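Translate structure to sequence.
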């Protein structure tokens, strides 16, 4: 528990105090955000706002997690190390995309194929490595069983596991990326989901088969350390949100959104709560679904649209809703998803 508190506090404090320095540096370099001309006109005032703030998110989480282990003297686990490697790899893909946009003045950055290839490469490496490194009980960071609120009896072939992990990482990282369209929206929602993972990790540790053997015990490799990692990301997001909330002084950019999505997917996979992520991250699912529906209906109907604009948050902007109103209401949706996810997680323990 001490490690969780330290990780969250250190990452939050660092993100809070270091972000202004990054804002000044990015502004001095002219690394400002491009704004779509076909988007809401209210966004035009955001043109030039420093982006690539996700650098702080990643570094703050690394610092909080690392220093908490240094202070407590607890060894870093394979599960958390692999999730961090996934975050760094996806962050690198996002950083390259952001750099091409703002530094090289290329509004499109990486092509869609290039970005997806980079994400798949990072996710595939994470999936393969996660099936290695068994502990003394034979548990690897990633299970070969499909998981809901815990591992099910459905066993997957190794190739299927890798494909499934790639799909999860792609879906989550791009879902956070699509959600990151209004000031503080994705950051605030991510804080809630990471907080839920802290609670899940602590519970799984307390009821793990190594600590409390029994019919209901959890076979998870490193649940407590994953809770520490979740706390580090929650703290980093909280400190960054101070500057990212409306009116945002800095945007996280793709380096932040892809990295946060990778962290959410990686922690869900290693905690054996794969399908529960759909409920915990319901806001990200909802916004991603709005884009899929919009594109599919546009092609099927020959140019008609379901929403005024996708992702969904921009639809409500074009309906006249204020940005802060949308963010707060979407945060409410995110909190309901987290509450429902935690309820399902605990309910399974009670009724089983």
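Result:
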């Amino acid at each position: 528990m001490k490690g969780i508190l330290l990780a969250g506090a250190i990452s939050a404090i660092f993100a809070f105090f270091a972000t202004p320095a990054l804002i000044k540096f990015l502004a001095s370099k002219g690394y400002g955000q491009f704004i779509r001309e076909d988007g809401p006109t209210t966004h035009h005032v955001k043109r030039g706002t420093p982006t690539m703030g996700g650098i702080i998110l990643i570094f703050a989480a690394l610092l909080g997690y690392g220093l908490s282990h240094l202070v407590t003297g607890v060894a870093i686990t394979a599960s958390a190390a692999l999730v961090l490697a996934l975050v760094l790899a996806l962050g690198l893909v996002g950083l390259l995309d952001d750099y091409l946009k703002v530094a090289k003045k290329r509004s499109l950055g990486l092509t869609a194929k290039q970005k997806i290839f980079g994400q798949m490469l990072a996710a595939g490496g994470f999936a393969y490595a996660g099936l290695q490194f068994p502990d003394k009980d034979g548990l690897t960071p990633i299970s070969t069983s499909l998981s809901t609120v815990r591992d099910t009896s459905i066993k997957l072939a190794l190739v299927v596991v890798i494909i499934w992990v790639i799909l999860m990482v792609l879906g989550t990282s791009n879902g956070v990326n699509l959600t990151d369209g209004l000031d503080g929206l994705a950051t605030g929602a991510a804080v809630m989901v990471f907080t839920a993972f802290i609670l899940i990790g602590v519970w799984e540790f307390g009821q793990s088969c190594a600590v409390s053997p029994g019919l209901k015990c959890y076979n998870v490799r490193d649940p407590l350390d994953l809770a520490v990692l979740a706390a580090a990301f929650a703290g980093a997001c909280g400190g960054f949100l101070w500057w990212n909330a409306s009116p945002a002084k800095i945007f996280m950019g793709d380096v932040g959104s892809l990295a946060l999505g990778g962290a959410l997917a990686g922690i869900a996979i290693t905690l054996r709560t794969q399908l529960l992520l759909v409920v915990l991250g319901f806001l990200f699912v909802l916004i991603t679904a709005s884009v899929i529906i919009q594109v599919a209906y546009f092609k099927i109907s020959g140019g008609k649209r379901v929403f005024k604009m996708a992702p969904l948050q921009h639809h409500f902007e074009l309906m006249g809703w204020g940005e802060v109103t949308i963010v707060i209401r979407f945060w409410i949706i995110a909190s309901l998803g987290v509450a429902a996810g935690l309820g399902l997680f605990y309910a399974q323990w009670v009724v089983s």
